[in-house]
Specification:
The protein is α/β, with parallel strands linked by helices and 343 residues long. The protein has helices at 6-11, 32-41, 44-49, 51-65, 78-82, 113-116, 118-130, 144-153, 161-169, 171-195, 212-233, 250-257, 270-277, 288-293, 295-309, 328-340; strands spanning 69-71, 87-90, 94-97, 136-142, 199-204, 239-243, 261-263, 282-286, 314-318. The strands form two sheets. Strands 1-4-5-6-7-8-9 form a seven-stranded parallel sheet. Helix 11 (212-233) links the parallel strand 5 (199-204) and strand 6. The chain starts with 5 loop residues before the first helix and ends with a helix. It binds coproporphyrinogen III. Residues 24-29, 38, 44, 71, 73-77, 89, 94-95, 140, 142, 146, 156, 203, 205, 321 line the site of coproporphyrinogen III.
Length: 343
């Protein structure tokens, strides 16, 4: 079978069966070769900022599994870092930033931003030159709301209460922060496309904690701006939006932002997903824990997605990032299962 550029074909609205596959966080701790390279790099941020090593870990899951897309290895939080916010990653604790105060927002400056992120753009170029032609290269950024939640709280929280409260108490500063992040994130994506990314994904991991008005203001509005800005420069480059946990709001998110494809989390029911798919391509949405469990749970999860969504434009993926405890044999089994299926 010719799998040539199948991710881009699906993003163009075509139905490809079996569907192309990649996994969010596919370069990560579940791979021994990733752990070895990360060790060599020293810290997680050193890995992100060393082009040869970032390119190497981006390519590792492609070599091992032959996924249909590679995603640039980096992190959404290099954007606030390049805006001058202090950032470190602590083993077992995740990212730690210096929390931003309302009064600091107007002083945020993008001077030197692209210079600081040059290693990221270099990594994109290296990956593109080493990647098989048929493998799509995805660039990405965090959505302004999700990046802001970390900038405000200084770390991950279960429900983003600090950022929600900040938005209610300081609406003008919140709008300003989100607008600034939207502008710089759009330029960041444009540079990744210039460096060789074929398509981009906007990760809004915390879209699911917002009420209706806040969803519109904090999640949709900044993404509308990013999409417009990227399309001014690259009207044909597909954009995948992943507003994790958006539930019923997935529909208005697609309509208002005009993203090319929707990344679906695993809580989205297949019937609802099929409705969304009538309006454009979807990506997802296997529960990452089914991949950890393997066996019947995995087989049933795959079969469910293929039977409900395989008849339309689908990129098979997880509903969130792959977990570090995922057995490699389960990933191999999953790929075999998807690729052997014929309708
Ligand atoms: O998908 C990929 O393979 C590309 C690389 C990628 C990473 N982070 C690498 C990473 C991408 C696209 C991200 C996005 C990201 N980063 C998001 C949005 C998607 C999501 O998962 O919700 C968020 C919220 C972050 C912020 C972040 N980075 C957190 C909360 C953590 C700690 C959690 C953890 O798994 O340790 C990170 C660290 C991180 N980013 C790791 C990787 C591979 C693990 C770091 C390590 O090697 O120890």
């Amino acid at each position: 079978m010719n799998r040539s550029r199948s991710v881009l074909e699906v993003l163009g609205g075509k139905t490809v069966f079996p569907p192309p596959v990649w996994l969010m966080r596919q370069a990560g701790r579940y791979l021994p070769e990733y752990r070895a390279t990360r060790e060599r790099a020293g810290s997680f941020l050193d890995l992100c900022y060393t082009p040869e090593l970032a390119a190497e870990v981006t390519l590792q899951p492609i070599r091992r599994f032959g996924f249909d897309a590679a995603i640039l290895f980096s992190d959404i939080l290099v954007v606030p870092h390049a805006l001058g916010r202090k950032l470190r990653f602590e083993e077992g604790r995740g990212p730690l930033l210096e929390p931003i105060a309302a009064g600091e927002i107007e002083r945020l400056s993008s001077a030197g931003f692209h210079e600081r992120l040059r290693p990221v753009y270099e990594a994109v170029g290296i990956v593109r030159s080493e990647l098989p032609r048929e493998t799509t290269l995805l660039g990405f950024c965090g959505a302004p709301w999700t990046v802001a939640t970390y900038m405000i709280a200084g770390h991950g929280t279960p429900d983003q209460a600090p950022a929600r409260l900040f938005g209610y108490r300081h609406p003008a500063e919140m709008d300003r922060l989100l607008a600034g992040l939207a502008e710089i994130s759009a330029e960041y994506l444009v540079r990744q496309i210039e460096a060789g990314a074929d398509a981009v994904q906007i990760f809004d991991s915390w879209a699911g904690v917002l009420d209706e008005e806040s969803f519109e203001r904090f999640c949709v509005r900044p993404v509308v701006h990013i999409v417009a800005r990227v399309r001014e420069r690259y009207p044909m480059v597909p954009i995948i939006g992943f507003p994790r946990g958006a539930g019923e709001f997935y529909r208005s998110y697609r309509q208002k932002t005009g993203v090319t494809a929707l990344g679906l989390d695993w809580m989205v029911p297949a019937s609802f997903a099929a409705g969304l798919q009538k309006e454009g391509p979807v990506q997802g949405n296997l529960d990452p824990l089914r991949l950890v469990a393997g066996g019947k749970a995995l087989g049933e999860g795959i079969a469910h997605i293929l039977s409900k969504l395989g008849g339309g434009p689908l990129i098979f993926n997880l509903g969130h990032g792959i977990l570090p405890e995922t057995p490699i044999s389960h990933v191999e089994w999953m790929l075999g299962e998807i690729r052997r299926t014929e309708r």
